[in-house]
Amino acid sequence: MAAEDHDPVMKGIAAELPRLWRYGLLLSGNRDTAEDLVQATCLRALERSHQFQMGTRLDRWLIAILRSVWLNQIRAQKVRQGQGLVDAEAVLVFDGLRHTETNILAGQVLGRVQGLPEGQREAVYLVYVEGLSYKEAADMLGIPTGTVMSRLAAARSKLGGLDT
Amino acid sequence: MSEENGKVLGTTTGTADHGMPENELLTAYLDGELGAEARAALDQRLATEPALKARLDRLASATDGLAAAYQVLAAAAPRERLETFVARATFLRRPRWLPGRAALSMAAAIVVFILGAVVARLIPLASVHDDLNWRQAVAEYQGFTNTETLAAIPDVPQVLDTELKTISGRLAVSLSPDKLTLPDATLKRADLFTFGGRPLVQLAYLTAGEGPVAFCIIPSDKPDATAQFETRDGFNVVFWNDDGRAYMLIGAAPRATLERYAGLLRARV
């Protein structure tokens, strides 16, 4: 009778936490805010677990909730408080992970992505890291497919050093 | 349905030269988002235009290491803290009166039977709307709570804060963790129930050695009254009225402990 035994949200949510957190970090640029975002996302997901459709992807559903929490609650609050964004690269420094070459390279890549404008950063993350198609990313972001493409092209140009 | 559906450039939307900026065309090509015809046209151009091919390679290399970097980032997530948070939030969404995960199917049948008896008693009591009966309902509910019930709840201040904020709003009373701190007791959870159409708040504490203690509040039309003591269903109870609300503390803890807690809470809440 324990609800989590047959509730796909309760059952699957723990495995998604690291990915939700990194998305929260990409959006907010701040690790504490990212944690707040994940917590708020989990509470909302558990409240609305009956709305999750069996056979669809839990990770995408959670990402969409996190994004909505960010846009509707936390982002506005941060803007009001005048808090700036922190480089995602700093997370790796704080965690003392800079000892290996892999982590140094990772930190550089993350720093470059974090330096992109918000719209491009998010499109890059959803398509190139989470593996969404243009159409799926467009639906998630509420923008036309062509806009996803132009944001990705602009991001690739910048990251590849082609920006003019 | 052709395989071109959903592609940025399908067979009917034109060729590589239909006016799309070149970087976008190359990006869609790299991302597998070009239709077959547009793709073939671009392949032909790439074979004969070295500058275009060089640009493509540059754009392709832009995403090198991206997935790996985000894997490293995911590994840096505060996983344990988040899992504890979720475990607690999940726990709070389970039906409260059920025992732990073990032996649940057997226990479920027994619980349904007990619940039937409790509900049968609560319904006539609830309809009377008097302050005595709400204490009786709380006493019966308290019988389902033991030390293990509360010890199993992880302490996550953020969850408690959220619960207290929601509850404060419903009861028009300000309940914050600092006001609710009690010596030798940990506030484990805050619940909002409905009793006789009124919101009933239950704050569950786990004491050090004296078992669970619940602090409960319900709107009341009775005049203010100083703290009184009674025993109910084997529990010690201290209750009082202030500002249109009835309060009670209940538990197996000694009368002196409950009266000390009552004094502290009455001064703060």
Characterize the overall form of chain B: elongated
The first-to-last residue Cα distance of chain B is 66 Å
Please tell me the total number of domains of chain A: 3
Going by CATH, the architecture of the largest domain in chain A would be Orthogonal Bundle
Query: Unreliable stretches of chain A, pLDDT < 50, 5 or more residues?
Result: 1-5
- Continuous helix count of chain A: 9
**Low-confidence blocks of residues of chain B:** 10-18, 95-106, 120-129
Identify the CATH class of the largest domain in chain A.
Mainly Alpha
Number of domains of chain B: 2
Rg of chain B computed from alpha carbons, rounded to a whole number of angstroms: 31 Å
First-residue to last-residue Cα separation of chain A: 61 Å
Total strands of chain A: 0
Output the number of helix runs of chain B.
11
Overall average pLDDT of chain A: 84
What is the architecture of the largest domain in chain B at the second tier of CATH?
2-Layer Sandwich
Instruction: Bin the helical content of chain B.
Output: 40-55%
Structural commentary:
The complex is a heterodimer of chains A (164) and B (269). Chain A has 164 residues and is mostly helical. Chain A folds into three domains: 1-84, RNA polymerase sigma factor, region 2, helix turn helix motif (Rna Polymerase Sigma Factor, Chain: A, Orthogonal Bundle), CATH 1.10.1740; 86-115, no CATH class; 116-164, Arc Repressor Mutant, subunit A (Orthogonal Bundle), CATH 1.10.10.10. Chain A has nine helices and no strands. In chain A, helix 7 packs across helix 9 (145-159). In chain B, helix 1 crosses helix 3 and helix 6 (104-128) runs antiparallel to helix 7 (131-142). In chain B, strands 1-2-3-6-5-4 form a six-stranded antiparallel sheet. Chain B has 269 residues and is of the alpha+beta class. Chain B has two domains: 1-76, no CATH class; 81-268, Phosphorylase Kinase, domain 1. Chain B is built from eleven helices and six strands. Chain B has helices spanning 22-30, 36-48, 50-61, 66-75, 79-92, 104-128, 131-142, 147-151, 157-171, 177-180, 255-268, and strands at 185-195, 198-207, 212-219, 225-232, 235-242, 245-251. Chains A and B meet through helix 2, helix 3, helix 6, helix 7 and helix 9 of A and helix 1, helix 3, helix 4, helix 5 and helix 6 of B.
